[in-house]
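Researcher: Here's a chain I'd like modeled. Treat it as a single chain, no partners, no ligands.
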Amino acid sequence: MRNSPGRAAFTVAGLRGRVPLQVLGEDRTLEAEEGTFSDDFEGYGVHLYRIPVETFGREGGPEIASSGPGEVRIPAARPEPFAPAPEAVPAAAAPRPVPPGAHVRGADCRGCHPAEHERWAASRHAPNPRRTLLNPAHNAAELLSDRCLSCHSPLEAPSLKIGHFVRPLDREGPWSLVEENVPKWRGICCEVCHDPAGRAPKLLAFFDPRRGTPVPVRNPSELCLKSQVDRFSGVEQ
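Model: Modeled as a single isolated chain. Structure tokens:
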């Protein structure tokens, strides 16, 4: 959650021996040894790791702790059959009145926050459907689905499908963008993590594509954790 590179070390309780971990969408793997592995991050960088759940037996999934300022623990998926337990969603705070024309979602943040916009535009959060959707290694390994939108362009997930942006939807390719819809791809824009009409600290909220509304959170750690857990457990494959 800062604009500087760094290296993070992860400890996965219950993971034994040498286990290969897939880095989703990046065509690379890492190896965990006795439950620990490290990875490099660019400013505001995000990596998603796939850990084979069969490594943990039938009792349940792992807990993951990351190094850095404080500790973050993330409950992982349980082995199949897996039915995610319903998670209580905080009640949305009463929105502050926003006069008509005072804010255009994703269009006028730059005017008041030029430095933040510059950092965002240089990050992987900025809209780039070509880089996200035309990755041959990823597309051949994992079938593109509507679930992709929930993380990579959440504001479009309630109304659009992955087929509106890329074709064909198979593992053979070659894949191409649906050019007339490219301008609709907004990536992870400001309103995915901030609600300009909200009352949470620093207007922190994550946009829930299932409900089509922001969900307030208390801090950046809760924002990242809740957005990943909700999106990955609540979107049909």
